[in-house]
Amino acid sequence: MDMQDKPRLMVALNLTPDSFYAPSRVSSPDGTFAMRVKALARAGADILDLGAVSTRPGAAEVPLETEWERLEPALRVLSRHGLHGMRLSIDTTRAEVVRRASMIVDSFIVNDISAGEDDAGMLGAVAALGLDYIAMHKRGGPRTMDAMTDYPEGIMDSLTEYFRSFSQKAEAAGIQNWILDPGLGFAKTPEQNWEILLRLRELKRFGRPVLIGAADKRFTRSVPPEAARLFPDAADGTEVAESLAASRGADILRVHRL
Questions:
Q1: pTM of the model
Q2: What is residue 202's predicted lDDT score, i.e. its pLDDT?
Q3: Could you give phi then psi for residue 55, rounded to 5 degrees?
Q4: How far is CA 60 from CA 53, 54, 96, 143, 159, in A?
Q5: Considering only CA atoms, which of 39, 48, 169, 59 is closest in space to residue 116?
Q6: Which residues contact 7 (CB under 8 A, 6 or more apart)?
Q7: Taking the mean position of all CA atoms in its chain, how far away is CA 41?
Q8: In what order do the strands lie in the sheet with 87-91?
Q9: Where would I find the beta strands (DSSP E) of 86-177?
Q10: pLDDT score, position 104
Q11: 45-78 pLDDT, tens per residue?
C-alpha cells in the first residue's frame, strides 16, 4: 500500500471517568491535557476526537450539563494552545453541545454515533454551522444494543439501506460533507463486525470517506481464520482489524494508540 493510500488517523481522547479503554481517559483543563494533545500531533495523529460521554456497553446516560462541564474546559485549552496541525472532532449526539462548542472553536467535525437519530435538531445545526459530519450506524443505546443484532436481510444490505436513507436526509438538511461509519461494536455480533471489515469496499458506493473504529473492541479478541491468514504477523486482533480496514479502503481509522 502506497503512503498516500494510508488512512488518516483519528485518536480518541475521552473526558470521562468510565470510557472502556482506560488509557484514553484524560483530565482537563490542566497542563497535562495540552501536553498530551501536542504529543499526539507529534506522533502523527491527523484528527483529535474529543468525547465527554461514554458509549461503552452498559454505560449510564449523562445529562447535557454534565457532558458540557467536561467538554468546555478542554475546548478552551485547545482554543488557547491550538491543535498543532490536527483537526478537531467532537464526539456528541447533542445539537446543543455542537452549538455551544462553535462559540469556542471555529471549525470541527461532529462525530455523531446516532447519525442524527438521537437529536432531531442535530442535522440542521450541523448544516447551519457548515460543519463536517460523521454519521454512524447503531441500534438502541449502550444498555440495549447488545440485544439488537438481528438483521434478517443481512448486515451489509442493512447498512447499505441505512446509509442510502441517511444520504437523503443529509442532502435535505444541507449537509455538504459527511463521513460514513458502519459502527463496529454497536448492535453487531463479532461475526457481523468481521463481515463488515471483509466486505468494506461495498460501502464505498456512496462516494463518502469511510471511518472505522475497531481499536480494542470486544470482537477483536477472536479473529476469524480468513482474516488472520491475511495478516499473520499482526500483534493482536485490533491490528488485524485495522489492517483489514485499511486494505479494504477505509479512509480514517479511529485509534487509541499511535
A1: 0.93
A2: 98
A3: -115, 20
A4: 9, 8, 20, 8, 27
A5: 169
A6: 212, 245, 246, 250, 251, 252, 253
A7: 18
A8: 178-181, 132-136, 109-112, 87-91, 47-51, 8-14, 252-255, 211-212
A9: 87-91, 109-112, 132-136
A10: 98
A11: 999 999 999 877 777 789 999 999 999 999 999 9
